Amino acid sequence: MLELRRSPRVTVTWRAGVKLPDGRLVLAKIVNISAEGVLLHTAENMIPQRSYHMLIEIPGIFQEADIHKVSCKGMVRHAILSGEVYHVGIQLSEMSQLHAELVGAWISKTAHLA
Fold first, then answer.
1. Start and end of every PilZ domain (predicted)?
2. Alpha-carbon distance 95 to 98, whole Å?
3. What pLDDT, in 10s, does the model give residues 43-63?
4. Residue 93: band (very low, low, confident or very high) from pLDDT cuts 50, 70, 90
5. How far apart (Å, rounded) are the C-alpha atoms in residues 82 and 102?
6. Cα–Cα distance, 30 to 39 (Å, whole number)
7. Backbone phi, psi, residue 103, to 5°
8. Which residues are within 8 A (CB) of 62 and not within 5 positions of it... i.e. 6 or more apart?
9. Does domain 10-113 have CATH number 3.40.50.1820?
10. Distance, CA of 58 to CA of 98 (rounded, Å)
11. Domain segments of the chain as ranges
């Protein structure tokens, strides 16, 4: 199938934490990534067009056991309830250049394997 998106997605299974406006930390599972954002699954609804502080755990490229804890912000683009889980599309920002390059390396690695 031809990928028509501006930034192709790759499937991952990463963990993330999202800080809600009331101060609670919600755990989420990231299911795909692109150079610009992520799709995550969470039990909590997230409001479109709202920005949230996030912490993403990204495995190392060569040693997947080496987990990089990446602090960033995420702007919710869409949130869709499917069963008991929200599928939330998030555009990432305020990520360090080094961590953005790590995401890019994961995309390249996965695209190479496909």
1. 4-107
2. 8
3. 999 999 999 999 999 999 889
4. very high
5. 30
6. 6
7. -60, -45
8. none
9. no
10. 12
11. 10-113
